[in-house]
Amino acid sequence: MTASTTGTAAVVGLGAAGAGLARRLAAAGIRTIGVEPDAEAAARARRTGVEVTADLSAVAAADVVLEAVPEPGPGKREVLAAIAGHRRAGAPVVTTALTTPAAELADAAGGELLALRFARADRLDAAELARAPRTSDEAAATVAALLDRAGVRTHAVPDVPGSLAPRLLFGFLNQAAWMRHDGYADQESLDTAVRLGCGWAEGPLEILDAIGHRTAGDILRGLHRRLGDRFAPAPLGTETGPDTAGSTARPPAGGAGEPADSTGTVAVIGSGTMATGIAEVFLRAGYRTVLVARTERKAADAREAVEFGLLRAGADEERLAGHLGRWTGTTDLTTVADAGVVVEAVVEDLGVKRDLFARLGTLCAPGTLLATTTSSLSVRDCAAASGRPEDVLGLHFFNPAPAMELVELVRGEHTGEAAVARARAVLARLGKAGVECADRPGFIVNALLFPCLNDALAALRHPSVTPALLDSVMKSVGGQPVGPTRLLDVVGADVALEVQRRLYADSGRPELAPAELLRDLVDHGFLGRKTSGRGVRAFLADEARTAAV
User: Fold this and answer.
1) Which one of 36, 128, 307, 408 is the catalytic residue?
2) 457: closest CA among 388, 523, 520?
C-alpha cells in the first residue's frame, strides 16, 4: 500500500485501545480486520463494522498491521513475533507499546516497526508516531496516511519510553491519584481544581476512570520500571471512584441580603495585583472592603486598579459609585479590628507573613477569620505566629481573582471547624468554587502543575524535541488547553523555579529537583512574558546560535 491508497488494515487485540483504533478505521471506510480470541470483545467490535476473526493468519490480507494487545512489553513481543510469521512482505507493523521503545521490539516484529502512542482510546483524534531504527520513510508515510484517513492526526516523535504527551500526562494523573489515596483531597476537589485551575475539560481522576484503572496501572508500572519513582503507581480501583465527602466544590451562590460574614466588613492587606483583585471580588459581592497598603500612594493606586477592574467588568456609574461607597484604602493596620474577615495578600515571604499574622493575632477580635493567600508557603507557620491557629486557614485565589472561579481552601494543622464553615459561607457569597485540601506546599493545582512543567523542560533536552513539537502534542494528544512552554512563559520561569524548589525541599524526592533548563532560564533572565516575551523559545534559539559559533 502506498501513502495515497486506502488498503486494508488489521488490528490485533480488540481491548480498549484496539477497539478504538478499529472503530476509527472502519468508520473511515477502510476495510478493517480485527483479530481477537475473546468472544465478548469480538462481538463488540463486530457491531462497529469490523470484520473479526480469532485466526491470526488473517493479517496476511492487510497492508498495515496494528498490534494493540495490553502492556507490558513481553506480551507484545510474543504477539509481534507471531504477526511476523503471517504478515504480507513489506507491510508495516505498528505497535501500541507505550512504555517499551519500538527499537526493543523491532527484532520480534521481523520488519519495519512503528509505535503509535496515545493516552486515551476514547479520544483518539491525535497520536504520537515513533519509528524503530531502519524503518523507512515510506513505511512511516504509509502508516501516517492510513491514520490521517481515519481522522487521527499523527506527530513524529522520538522513540523513548512514554513518548512525550502520554508520559507527561500519566505523571500528572498518577500524582493526583496519590493525593486522593493519601487523603489529601477528595476526588471532586481534585477534579474541580484541575478543571478550573488548569482549564482542563476533565479532571485527572475522571480521565483515569475513562482510560480504565487496569490499563492505567499497566502503563504506570511500565513507566515506573523505566523512568523511576514519579511513576510509582498509586492504588487505583475503587479508591479513585466518586467521593464528595467534605468537598466544597461549586458552592451555591449567595442570595440577596447581608453577606455571609456576620459584620459584612472585610480587610484585605496588600496592594499588588492579587490584593486588588481580591478586594474587587469582595466589593462586587456586597462587602464593605478595607484595603491596607504600606503607603498612601499604594492605597490610592489600589483604588484606581479596583475602579478600573469594576468598569472593565461592566459597572455603570451608579453601580460603580455603590461599590466604591463601600471602599476604604488606608495605611492604618488597626482598622482590621472592625473586620470579620481578614485576607492577607502581601509578598510571598514567610518572615513577612509571620510578622503580619503576629500583629493580626493581637489586633483582631476573637473569632475573626484570618486567611492567607499564600500559594506555596505553609499555612501552619502563619497560623502559629498568630497565637490563634484555630482562626487561620488558606484561601488561595487564582490570578486574575475576579475572573478565576477557583479558590483552594486550605486547612492548617489546627484550623477549627468554625473557621472552615465561615470560609465556605464567604466563598458561596463570592460565587467561587472552593475546593478543600490539607496544608502542604503547592496545595492541589501548583503541586500537580509545576512538576509537569518541570518534566516538560527536561524533555526539551532531547535533540529532536522542540518547544513547538512539545506544545503541539500536549494540546492535541494530551488534551491540554495550552502547551507547557507557552504556559511557562505566561507564569514566569522565576515563579516556576521558586515553587519547584519548595516542592523539592519539602519532599526531598529527586524527581522533583528543578530541571537544569529551568535554572538556566532564570539565571540568564529568560522569564517569559515579564521579560518582553523572551522565554523558552528565545533561550533555546540563543543557545543553539552560541553552540553553532
Assistant:
1) 408
2) 520
Out of 174, 271, 386, 446, which one is annotated catalytic?
446
Banded model confidence at residue 257, pLDDT cuts 50, 70, 90 = very low
Is the confidence at residue 251, as pLDDT, over 70? no
**Pick from 3-17, 70-84, 289-303, 336-350: least confident:** 3-17
Q: Does 396 participate in catalysis according to the annotation?
A: yes
CB atoms within 10 A of CB 27: 14
β strands within 264-374, DSSP E = 265-269, 288-292, 327-330, 341-344, 369-372
Q: Is 408 a catalytic residue?
A: yes
Do the strands 392-397 and 406-411 form a parallel or antiparallel pair, or are they unpaired? antiparallel
Catalytic residue among 163, 271, 396, 472: 396
Please list, in sequence order, all residues whose beta carbon lies within 8 angstroms of the beta carbon of residue 353, skipping any fewer than 6 positions away: 344, 346, 372, 374, 377, 381, 382, 385
Angle at alpha carbon of residue 210, lines to 208 and 212, rounded to 5°: 65
Catalytic residue among 247, 375, 386, 472: 375
pLDDT digits (tens, 9 = 90+) for 455-505: 999 999 999 999 999 999 999 999 999 999 999 999 999 999 999 999 999
3-state secondary structure of 377: coil
